[in-house]
Amino acid sequence: MADCTTWPSCRSDHSGYPHCMNRIAAKVARGEKTDTAQLLGRAGMACYALVHLILAYLAVRVAFGGGGQPDQKGALQEVGSTAFGQVLLWVLAAGLVAFGLWQFLMAATGYTWTSGGKRTRKRFGAAARGIVVLAIGATAFRLAAGDGGGGSSDQTQQEFTAKLLQLPAGPALVVIAAAIVLGVAVAAGVKGVKQSFLEDLDLAGLPGKTRRWVGWLGSTGYLAKAVVFAVTAFLLGYAGFRSDAKQAGGLDASLKTLAAQPFGAVLLTVVAVGLAAFGAYCLAAAWAHRR
């Protein structure tokens, strides 16, 4: 079977890169920049923001002894707890899928306003974010359809950890996974401190007063997420050292771990404020993201 470089319209350019591949990349880039793709992706980002705002509410409820499941599934269940919420849950599910797909398009051809290693890192980040958001969207669809939506973040994390522990050198693999999550935490913290997320926004497209708040909201949000990721990494690493999957936990366990510390109610409330700030930042980013 002939490869694409044998087709009359797909000869290689001077760098040896086939023109057909250039055309595919160009089509993907055009798809990412179309008004429809932008509208759906930005609407989906607003849905992602809503999930974080509800997460913040659930975290505050846990901080003051209200109980509940403060993770993505818990947030979606909160949305679907009323008759109107069931309709909203379908909209939210569709929006999250749209946002996830937009992130994949951004991973393929986006961030053209940067270059080199920075662009590569941003594209990898968009791909990872797309996977996470699509998983949340799939949970939303399952909940809307009434099939339960799968387990909590803790159950998912523990099942993943148990599978790793069954492999040769399983405990070491779990510790490595914990180190990766810790790396994500550090990256989120650095992003919050340096406010590098502002590079991806066209601040001129925001109202003047809103513009002054975006940097603070983003920094607070990314620092809060860094704390949550760091606790998740600690729980995962501890599970690896103990060879006990039950010690691992997702967002639910991470927030409840914070609540169990001295002054835990205050600490978790601060993190909840950060999660709410991140949700508000995502609303602004949905409006002003570069294209």
What would you say this structure looks like, in words?
With 291 residues, the protein is an all-alpha fold. The protein has one domain. It contains ten helices and no strands. It is globular, with a radius of gyration of 21 Å. Residues 1-9 and 24-29 have low confidence and may be disordered.
Number of domains: 1
- Strand content bin: under 5%
The termini sit apart by 38 Å
Parts with pLDDT < 50 across at least 5 consecutive residues: 1-9, 24-29
Number of helices in the DSSP assignment: 10
Name its key features.
10 helices; mainly alpha; globular; disordered N terminus; 291 residues; 0% strand
Chain-wise SSE layout:
Layout: H1 19-33, H2 35-63, H3 72-79, H4 83-109, H5 116-145, H6 153-165, H7 170-194, H8 208-242, H9 251-259, H10 264-288
Helix pairs in contact: 1-4, 2-3, 2-4, 2-10, 3-5, 4-5, 6-7, 7-8, 8-9, 8-10, 9-10
Summarize it.
By secondary structure, the chain is an all-alpha fold. It has one domain (37-288). It is built from ten helices and no strands.
